[in-house]
Amino acid sequence: MEASVKGWGPERPGESEDQAGSADGALSFVVREVNRAFARALQTRIARSGVSMGQWFFLRALWEEDGLTQRELSHRVGMMEPTTVTAVNVMEAQGLVQRVRNSHDRRKMNIFLTDKGRALRDTMMPSASEIAQIAIDGIAPEELDVTLDVLRRVGANLNAASAAARESEEE
Fold first, then answer.
1. Proportion of the chain above pLDDT 90, given as a percent
2. Average pLDDT over residues 72-85
3. Residue 107: pLDDT band by 50, 70, 90 thresholds?
């Protein structure tokens, strides 16, 4: 690939290919740019259903397991609980979800998809699959396997480092 393509080679005068590809910043930059490209492509398609990117993540979690508590939903999506409350309020107003008081613990609210929220899966998931397919166009299956393996190990390394940092702060 040409070095002049934004994000894929040296961009600052005097910067060598080796410096641009070093592990001190290029990996995080490329991962962020790929994530943003996925988000832009997906947002374009899901907006047709009247759903925001934020709502998409909550809907995906509920499509996998309906009836989660607000706290469980927050953890699954990786959002703070106040953000989840706001998103659920909007989705409830749109008729996508409904809150139901937990029968075992009256302090908890479970979030359930409505028929309308459940039906969105059939229109939105094919768009996500299409984008995933576009993303890997022209990439050999072996290359994709290696890429996924490396990214999983990068994630595991970062998660382990974060856990170790939290443990040392607690001591």
1. 67
2. 93
3. confident
Are residues 45 and 76 both part of a single domain? no
Of 36, 39, 42, 34, residue with least CA distance to 127: 42
Q: Which domain holds residue 7?
A: 1-49
Residue 155 belongs to a domain? no
CA distance 65 to 68: 7
Integer angstrom CA distances of residue 66 from 29, 59, 70, 97: 35, 9, 11, 10
Three-state SS for the chain is CCCCCCCCCCCCCCCCHHHHCCCCCHHHHHHHHHHHHHHHHHHHHHHHHCCCHHHHHHHHHHHHCCCEEHHHHHHHHCCCHHHHHHHHHHHHHCCCEEEEECCCCCCCEEEEECHHHHHHHHHHHHHHHHHHHHHCCCCCHHHHHHHHHHHHHHHHHHHHHHHHHHHHHHC
Averaged pLDDT, 38-57 = 90
Domain shared by 60 and 108, yes or no: yes
Structural domain includes residue 75: yes
pLDDT of amino acid 106:
83
Domain membership flag for residue 21:
yes
Could you tell me if 80 and 35 lie in one domain? no
